[in-house]
Amino acid sequence: MGLLDDGLVIIEAGLNETAGKDRNRNVPYGPDEVVPAGIAAARAGASVLHFHARRADGSQHWTGHELYRKAIEGITAEVDAFCYPSYVESNLSHVFELSDVLDFAPFDVVQHVRRVQWNHAEQRLESVTALGGPPRPPYPSELDQLAEAGMLPTIAAFEIGELRWALLAARSGVIPQPLSVKVFLNDSWIKGPFADVTGLDAFLSQVPDDVDLELMAVPYEMQDRGRTEELLLAALDRGMHIRVGIGDNPTAFPTQTNAQLVEWAVELAGSRGLAPATPSDIRNRYGLAAHAGSDSPSS
Fold first, then answer.
1. Tally of domains in the chain
2. Which of 40, 90, 151, 204 is the most buried (most CB within 10 A)?
């Protein structure tokens, strides 16, 4: 039984990504801006907050664990919310530095998985050998390191094959179930299916009944509010969680704040008879222990 079976939907907020204030002046840059934005989004109904470490001038500091720590500790001192960072070039060094304050860890299939195949007889992943070249590990060692550090990978899939890999990895026991998976429908990058309901259904067509997962739809770089709303409602109707945020879609939402988008997402969920899942609901679903301060009375 998943969270949506209980009428609960996870609402995640993508606070800043790589968007600049020239696209939406409310995009938060450094921790001094991320903290109040994250608190407001959590109080509006977001249980999960994702953001990039950015300096005060907006520049990216991909491995900036000090910036992340300052923002995460500032947010969780006031509200109960899951926060998790971004990364690039397969470098998770800062994520491991933050393991004491993280429950979720980012994991982009595209950054770690190359040339693998499925062994049907043994129900496991293995390296592709038909193309020649040196053998590769059948799955990324970072997954073991995340498990040892007590972090749950929240898996990003931009292509249908990346979702397929995550499902097979779960089936073979490489990743524990229930899975946390986000599928990105990008309206600008030429990657993945088209960012419309047919693209969403293309992802969903690959999900088997024997894998336990919580699946989230992430409309990304959308060009207008109407198409974003269509995708979010279609996701809710299909039993998926949803992510919003001005970092994700500054063009579609050039004047809104993250909290306003979360409030909107709560309204959309309510129109489908769903209530926002709390961090406690998510902890129970994934068997996560609470960090100190996670039951803040102001949450």
1. 1
2. 151
Question: Could you tell me if 47 and 265 are in contact, meaning their C-beta atoms sit under 8 angstroms apart?
Answer: no
Measure the CA–CA gap between 23 and 250, rounded to whole angstroms. 6
Query: Do the strands 104-108 and 11-14 form a parallel or antiparallel pair, or are they unpaired?
Result: unpaired
Does 45 fall in a domain? no
Per-residue tokens: 278: 């709390």
DSSP assignment of 168-202: HHHHTTSSPSSEEEEEEEESSSS-SS-SSHHHHHH
Tell the residue number behind the tokens 């429950």, with chain if given. Answer: 103
Residue 119, CA distances (Å) to 2, 106, 128, 135, 209 in order: 29, 27, 10, 15, 19
d(CA 181, CA 166): 8
CATH number assigned to the domain comprising residue 176: 3.20.20.70
Q: What is the pLDDT of residues 20-64, one digit of tens each?
A: 999 999 999 999 999 999 999 999 999 999 999 999 999 999 999
> 258-271 and 225-237 are packed helices; what angle lies between their axes, rounded to 10 degrees?
40
- Contact indicator for 53, 268 with CB cutoff of 8 Å: no
> 155: helix, coil or strand?
strand
- Domain of residue 117 covers 3-27+94-286
Q: Residue 292, exposed/middle/buried by CB under 10 A (0-12, 13-18, 19+)? A: exposed
pLDDT tens, position by position, 224-261: 999 999 999 999 999 999 999 999 999 999 999 999 99
Q: Are 38 and 256 in contact (CB under 8 A)?
A: no
Integer CA distances (angstroms), 207 to 6, 134, 166, 184, in order: 20, 31, 10, 15
d(CA 285, CA 221): 30
* DSSP label of 230: H
- Look up tokens 């530095």; give the residue: 97
Residue 74: inside a domain: no
